[in-house]
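SUBJECT: A protein chain and its fold
Encoding: whole-number codes for local backbone shapes
Chain under study, with its fold:
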Amino acid sequence: MGVRGHNACEVFLTGGPYGEGRWALLDHDLSTVVFDPTGSRLLSIDEIRRDLARLIDPKFEPQRQHGWPLGGLHPDDPQGYAEFNVVEHRPGYAGPPPMVSLRRGETLRRYYQPGLEDGRTFVFWGQNYRTAGIPGPERSRTWVNQPEKFRGTPQGAGFRPGQARFGNAVYHYRPNFRDGSYREGVIAETDREVVFEFQSPYIIAATPADDRDWGIYEPGARHGLVIRGRGETSVALSTDRGATWREGGRLEGQLDLTDLAKGHRQYWLKFAGPAAKLADAGLEIVTVCQANPALFPRLQDDGATVTFAASGQAVVSAGPGVLQAQPHVVEGAFDTPRVTLELAPPRKHAATHVFAAAHVASSNPPDPQINYQVDLSLDAGQTWRPLVSDGRIIRQGNEPRDFWSQSFSYGDGPLPSGTTGPVRVRFRNDGGKWYLRAELHLAYAVPNQDRCRVTFAWSDDRNPHHMATHTFSPKDDLPWQVATGHNVMMQWVEFAAEP
């Protein structure tokens, strides 16, 4: 929902005080909900707008809010509900859950604060605010890392420079060419070249060449993707799943390919020559991504219990960007009312679940009679079954005077056991609406699950440099007890694949 100064969100609730159904404000942007004078029902933006001065006054029947603040970030924020300008139907979509799959010889270390190991290497993706002298994105008003203070805090989140900053996810991969385990990361191999794949739920970051606000987009960035090794082999990189390649140079010690990989979540890395040539090269591939530390596991004060779970799955993606999806278009085209994508799991692994989404030019206002369908085929398009069978945009309740002219059509579903071949997904509609872009993701089973070594590093009132390590088996459901003191401050957590 478009209100003054930002986009809010409404949910359609039924039953109880909502009867057959009413819209209710659930403002994820400003952390705000507004109850009616009795405190029994959440109000819609339109209802709030019609009685704005009274309903956003924190002194008016304060008990009605049940502890939820009016203006969750700042007390003045609800003034934005004076305007009710535009509605966006299906403005987002559900994609695959974030998955991390480590190969033998690979570690993932997640840093809770900017700066990496030395505290001075800032690798990020976004606007460079330089708040309090620290480069990179930040938010000075947020609840994301102080949620326990939200209820019962009528003054809002408060302003603190650097209240929430970015973290990093650092992948360090040393493929072993002698025992053959390097093939876990190979997407293609001949006697002339070896091609490794990389995919992450985190975006590949960069240290910009200068401190301008948007310096990440300028050439000369560093630290996002670094390759080390010997052997003088030539290296090339693709960010569109092998459709095009850019030369990275000859590996004679170290190559920094950040400018080629930054801003992406996947790449293919091609080394000239056979695998035997790389066996003595001491190859190391370091990929530094930006990640949200609010989602990292944290140890608690006075002892923590750590549990471990492994899905045994990974994900392969044709998208979300057009560059990654375009090589997988097998019928139709983007910017037309019909497009089909095809994707197969790597290394003939078995796909277990399919996720598909498309960005549609659905017009202003959207026509609720148009049916957007998503179909699935496992036999190269000979037969189809519905993934989304009735994708009409439902318009109900009160609406403002304007609409967003776009929407998303999406769906997901399990795949039959043993699905190793290509999966096709077809997007179509009966209203002639264009698909601006589309994406296809497959979750697939990873054979030969290894153990996972987990290491936490933190400080507390007893020691500024604690470390604790434990190795979990794939099916290990026994908790790990970690002794901690008071005032735990997390530094990093590392995961490593172990045979």
